[in-house]
Amino acid sequence: MPIYHNFELLAGQNKEKIEVIKNKEEAKEEIKKLVNLITNAQENKDYKNAIKFLKKGIEIEKNIYGKNHPYLADSYNWICEIYLKIGNFLEAEKYYSMVNKIRELYEKENPLSLSLSYAKVGDLYKQKGDFNQSEKYLLKSLRVYERIPDENFLVLARILSDLGNLYEKKD
């Protein structure tokens, strides 16, 4: 399946010329270019363009890898972080849901990613002031983490610290 992408828009020009990326290698190269554009946009606090470039990259990744690949979860997570920076909790929550759906599929291969993802959702809800939802996700994170043999205890410490801070705020 060909992958469609707007090259001239990425270059900052106004013309809208659609090109066809003919193979996966071209698509991967285009993703690398997008990563640079996203990083630059973030460094310049141009979050609107960072989100636009991320969404374009996500569409390319979907075409290359399918809709449930772990790379997509990483891209969705990146867009969540940007939405959190600009205070758009609703969009961040929407994308975190997509992150979790994918990471749940790959829990056996990478349970740490799922645990950390749940912790981030818990933090999102804490920022929103929804302490019950925050607690739910932090406990989910803890339950996943407890099943991970020989992992880094700093992650466990972070989850427990977040739960402690949450309980302190609830009281």
Could you walk me through the main structural features you see in this protein, from its secondary elements to its overall organization?
- The structure is a single chain.
- This protein is mostly helical.
- The protein has eight helices and two strands.
- The protein has helices at residues 7-10, 24-43, 47-65, 70-85, 89-105, 111-128, 131-146, 153-170, and strands spanning 3-6, 18-21.
- It has a two-stranded antiparallel ribbon with strand order 1-2.
- Residues 1-21 have low confidence and may be disordered.
Describe what is shown at a glance.
The chain has 171 residues and is mainly alpha-helical. It contains eight helices and two strands, in the order E-H-E-H-H-H-H-H-H-H. It is 75% helix and 5% strand.
